[in-house]
C-alpha cells in the first residue's frame, strides 16, 4: 500500500524548504526525514532515492514558475510578452537561486525533464506568437534557443554575484539586445559619446604615467559611467 499523498507532499515541502534555506547540500536524507517527521525509508518508498526527490523538487519549482508565467497573461503585443517573460525568469531565479540552480543546473546531456519541457513549450508558444505577427527575423527554434540561452546564462551569472554588486541595468540591456537580434528591430538611436568614453577607457593603460594613480582611477570611474550611459538621463 502506498503512503498517503499528504506524506509525499510533506516530504516535498520539507525538501523545498531545506533547499531554499541551505542550498543543495542541505537536502540530505537525515535532514529531510527530520523536517518532514518521517523515517528515511519513507522517502525511498515515495521517491526511490534522493535523486528522485530532487527531481520532484525541481518539478515543483517549474510548476511554481509556470504558474507565475500564466498569471502574467498575454497582451496584444507578442514582443512585449517576451519582455515580460524574460523579466519574470530573471526575477524568479534571483528570488529562488537554489531552486533555479536545481531546475536548470542538473541535466543529463541530451535529456530534458518533463517539467523543463513544459517551460520550453511555454517559451516556444510566446515566440510563435511573434512569428505569427510577422515580427520574427529568425526561425522560431533559433529565437527560442537564443532567448533561453541568454536568459538562463544571465541568471546563472547574476546568482554568482553578491546582490549589491550586480549591475541593475544588465538584464534590460541583454534582453533588448536579444530581442533586437531575433526580431530584426534596430535599436533606438543613441549618442556617440558612450563609444568614445569606452575607447578612451581602454587607452588609459597607455598613458605612460601621465596621470597619477588617483587621477586614473577617477577618470576611469567617470568614463565607465559615460560608457554605460544610453543617453536617456540628463542632469537636473
UniProtKB/TrEMBL annotation:
InterPro entries in the cross-refs: Homeodomain-like_sf, HTH-type_TetR-like_transc_reg, HTH_TetR, Tet_transcr_reg_TetR-rel_C_sf
Chain ranges of the HTH tetR-type domain: 5-65
Family matches, as PANTHER family: HTH-TYPE TRANSCRIPTIONAL REGULATOR RUTR, POSSIBLE TRANSCRIPTIONAL REGULATORY PROTEIN (PROBABLY TETR-FAMILY)
Pfam families xref list: TetR_N
Protein name, as recorded: TetR/AcrR family transcriptional regulator
Keywords, comma-separated and alphabetical: DNA-binding
Signal sequence bounds: none
Residues annotated to bind DNA: 28-47
